[in-house]
Structures are given as C-alpha cells and as structure tokens.
Amino acid sequence: MNTLTNLIPTIYTALDTVSREQVGFIPAVSRSSKADAAAKGQSVTAPVAGIAKTVDIEPGPTAPDDGDQDIGNVNVTITKSKMSPVKWNGEEQLALGPAGTYNTILADQFAQAFRAVAGEVDADLAALYFGSSRAVGTPGKPPFGIPGDLSDAALARQVLSDNGAPKSELQMVLGSSAIASMRGKQSVLFKANEAGTDKLLREGTIGRLEGFDIHESFNVKRVPPTAAAGYLVNGAKVEGDVLISIDTGKGIIPIGTVVNFSGDENHYVVAASTASTVTISAPGLRQDLADDTQMTVLGGFAANMAFDRKAFVLASRTPAMPKGGDTADDVMNVTDSVSGITFQIALYRQYRQVRYEIGLAWGVASIKPAHAVLLMG
Would you call 262 helix, strand, or coil by DSSP? Predict the structure, then answer.
C-alpha cells in the first residue's frame, strides 16, 4: 500500500455507507463546497442572486438590451477546521490474520469518521435556528401529532408565503419526535392510493409534503424553558418594527426563544435581547402594537425548522496545507455526491504504524431569516 490510490474502493465504500444516512440539515441548505483550501478564521464568499423584476413586453425590431443583474455575495467565516483520525500498527494488522477483514474494518472506521465530521457540521447548522422569522406550533407538543391534521406544514408554508419566500426549494428538517408522529399518526401519508406511493408504508421514507422536502436530523436543537415573564411593550410599535422596547418584566429572554403579544396571533423569534429591548427577526411585526401590550415568552420546545434552501448557507473547504506539503505521504480529496461536501484524506506513515486523517474546514451562516420558520415541538 504505497499511496491512497489503492484505498479508493475502501474509502468510497465507507462514503456510500454514510451518504444515505446524511444528517438532515446538510442536504437541505445552500452549499458552497469546493476543494480549495481555506484557513480557519478566513472568510469565503457565497453568491446571492438578486431579486428578479418584470417589464412590459413591447414588440420591436430587436430584443431589448436589458436583463442585467447585480449578483451579490455573502461572507461566511470558516470557524472550524477539524479531522477524525484512524490509526493502525503492524501488530494490529497481523492479529487479524488471513481472515481478510482488514479492509472491511477500515471501511467501517472511515464511515464512522465521515459521520463524526458530518454530524458536527449538521449540528452547527441546527444551531442557526434563531435565524428564523416566526414560529408555529405549541411548545412541548411535537408537530403532526393529531391524526389526519397536516396544519403544521400548512401554517409553516403560510408564514413563508407571507414573507415572500420562493416555493421551488422548500425544506423541512424535523427531529425524531416529529418524524415519529408523522409516521405513526398521519395515515394519509402511507395510504398508497391517497399518497401516490407506498414508500412510507414499506420503507418509512416520507419524501415531499405540501411542497417541502422532508429531512430528519438528530441534531435538531431544544430551546430550554425560560422563567422570563411579566413584560410589557414600552411605547407604541408599528408593523415591520424589529426592535421592541420592553419594561416591568422579570427574567432573561434568551436568543432563540419565541415571543408573542396580546392581540397578535403571530409568534416571533428572538434574534437578540437586552434588559430593556427585544429584537425579533425580519421581516418584523405583522401588526401595530399599543403601549403596554403584554408580551409572553415561550421556551421549552424542539426547534424543528422549515425554510427555503437559500435561507442558510454552508461553506466547506478542505483544511489548509502548508506550501510544499507537510509530512503526509499522500493526500486526496473525496467528494460526497449526496451532500456535495469534499473531504480531505491524508495518509501519514509513522514508525511501525499508519495513520489516516479525514478532515474538513467549514462555516455556516443564516442569510435570510424571513425565509425560515420554526415548528415548535
């Protein structure tokens, strides 16, 4: 085994093992995944297309000279550069004897390494739940818990429609409790004659629901309960305001909790807070508020999420190597066709042992809070 080339079948076997188990946020968000090396702390850019406009059609001898657009970008900082190691020495390989299980075990180790790195990436994306505009559902009650009732999906889509989110790439990432409720109580989804497929009944595969691609992730965050209470709005507010002055209350209002106001049926996600102000995510209030309107703070829920794919972005790169390389005997990049992530695999020959590293550098960002909504559960 002179180079990693001989290990390509083993590596791709491992990658195939984990790619279909990919944690739910990674395939759901917008990705800027390249093999270009980037250093930890470095900012990389992801393109953002501008809003399209319409013009009147006016017949003429030539087509109009229009259609120019400003393609913007958003900076995403590479905040983590990590690797998962795999190591074997000669005695350990010899102990396996002629059974021929070395490559099988090695493939399993690579699979676990891919899962470890991808799991941390997915957890970072799940932690962006506070970058959502509003929330639907009830804390402590998993979505889709009422048989035959798909209101949670309908309400989530209503929020995104009200906020002007595109409808072509809607995603929904649910935790295990929400997925279990969907599989166990929404019989309409596994009646083949009504759902148009028997995949949920036979395989547990949900697929699409009301325009959403459904994903499952064990990394869905749980917003802790809060003792914050008794707050009143300080001064009248108007529709669209995001900075809400408050007074008289007690307790800290954590980022990511949800607030609602007396007389307003909407639930707003807290993007920032101080002792005297609460900042809610864009596009802000849906209606005017009078002075001294009562504000209620909600916590203690699972932060399931629904969003347009471009509401969040994952920028991933291979970890930076010094010019001329380091002591690695061989380095190769392997791209997961499902997630689009390119992992770096490095081989280090040491004294009577070999060591492999599966590495990745990445950063995540919330780009458009107005195009995301929480499904409290």
Answer: coil
Query: Exposed, middle or buried, 359 (CB in 10 Å: 0-12/13-18/19+)?
Result: buried
Q: Which residue type does 335 have?
A: T
**CATH number for position 231:** 2.40.30
Question: Which stretch of 166-170, 205-209, 277-281 has the lowest confidence by average pLDDT?
Answer: 205-209
Contact 219, 176 (CB under 8 A): no
292, 341: one domain: no
Q: Give pLDDT tens digits for 21-31.
A: 567 898 889 88
Domain match, 348 and 244 both? no
- Specify the 3-state DSSP secondary structure of 203: helix
CA 81 to chain CA centroid, Å, is 18
Q: Mean pLDDT across the stretch 295-314?
A: 94
Torsion of CA 230, 235, 238, 239, to 10 degrees: -20
Q: pTM here?
A: 0.85
30-33 and 312-317 strand pairing: parallel
pLDDT of 107 reads 87
Q: Are residues 286 and 334 in the same domain?
A: no
Confidence of residue 323 (pLDDT cuts 50, 70, 90): confident
Q: Are 4 and 316 in contact (CB under 8 A)?
A: no
Q: DSSP string spanning 80-113?
A: EEEEEEEEEEHHHHHHTGGG--HHHHHHHHHHHH
C-alpha 93/C-alpha 367 separation (Å) is: 48
In a domain, 372, yes or no: no
User: Does 251 share its domain with 317?
Assistant: no
* CA of residue 70 relative to chain centroid, distance: 27
By the 10 Å C-beta count (0-12 exposed, 13-18 middle, 19+ buried), 59 is classed as exposed
Q: Quickly state the pLDDT bin for 202 (edges 50, 70, 90).
A: very low
Beta-bridge partners for 141: 138
Q: Which two tokens stand for residue 13?
A: 């076997």
Domain boundary among the residues 279, 299, 319 is at 299
The domain of 252 spans 225-299
